[in-house]
Design goal:
It contains eight helices and eight strands. By secondary structure, it is of the alpha/beta class. The relative contact order is 0.17. The structure holds D-xylitol-5-phosphate and zinc ion.
Length: about 220
């Protein structure tokens, strides 16, 4: 399984999003954090901005919806052209119905878990989703440090996916950098979101390549 690197544009210059998407043209996806100031204590961007990003991005978009009522809003991100749409398990009222709707619209469906949300109650959903996002920081802000205590959950998620014989990706998001990416990959993650590590680098393509190489040696 290849290691996928999805830089988060939360750490890009919001006055120059098109230019900053251009900087990550060697990435696998651009990770777009949608926050509504209710599910998390921060506000970023919504559908009108996302629709334009989908039109100008050189790489497919990976939408991470940190919003309440994703049952109502998430399908519109798939319709806007997101390649992948991830909603939070804690916020969805009908996750199976929502995941099916996202797939029907042609997107990969993802379910995200806050650091303190266990994966076990969601294992029955595995065949309905394409991705599990294990948050490795509390969602809401970039630049926080990686919570090591999430590693066992990544391991349990990977084990459940392997046992079920499914091709479900495991994504990690938060505090991912050269110093943490190998441990996340060892635990079973294969998709890596990095905001400050990528956009804070002097040479963005070199940072993407370095992260991909470090992770690639540990993804199994
Ligand atoms: C946080 C967001 C992340 C954020 C990660 O809630 O979901 O995608 O951009 O930022 P870093 O990589 O700086 O921790
Ligand atoms: Zn995110």
């Amino acid at each position: 399984m290849p290691a996928l690197i999805n830089p988060s544009i939360l750490s890009a210059d919001f006055a120059n999003l098109e230019r900053d998407l251009g900087k990550i043209s060697t990435a696998d996806y651009a990770h777009v954090d949608v926050m509504d100031n209710h599910f998390v204590p921060n506000l970023t961007l919504g559908l009108p901005v996302f629709e334009r990003l989908a039109q100008v991005s050189p790489v497919p978009l990976d939408a991470h919806l940190m919003i309440e009522d994703p049952d109502r809003w998430a399908p519109q991100y798939a319709e806007a052209g997101a390649a992948s749409v991830t909603f939070h398990a804690e916020a969805a009222s009908a996750p199976v119905r929502l995941a099916r709707e996202l797939r029907r619209l042609g997107a990969r469906a993802g379910v995200a878990l806050r650091p303190a949300t266990p994966v076990e109650p969601y294992l029955d959903l595995l065949s309905e989703v394409d991705l599990i996002l294990v948050m490795t920081v509390e969602p809401g802000f970039g630049g926080q440090s990686f919570i090591e205590g999430t590693l066992p959950k990544i391991r349990r998620a990977r084990q459940a996916v392997s046992e079920a014989g499914l091709d479900v990706w495991i994504q990690v998001d938060g505090g991912v950098s050269r110093s943490t990416i190998e441990r996340a990959a060892d635990a079973g993650a294969n998709v890596f979101v990095a905001g400050s590590a990528v956009y804070g680098a002097d040479d963005v393509p070199a940072e993407i390549a370095a992260l991909r190489e470090l992770a690639g040696a540990h993804v199994h």
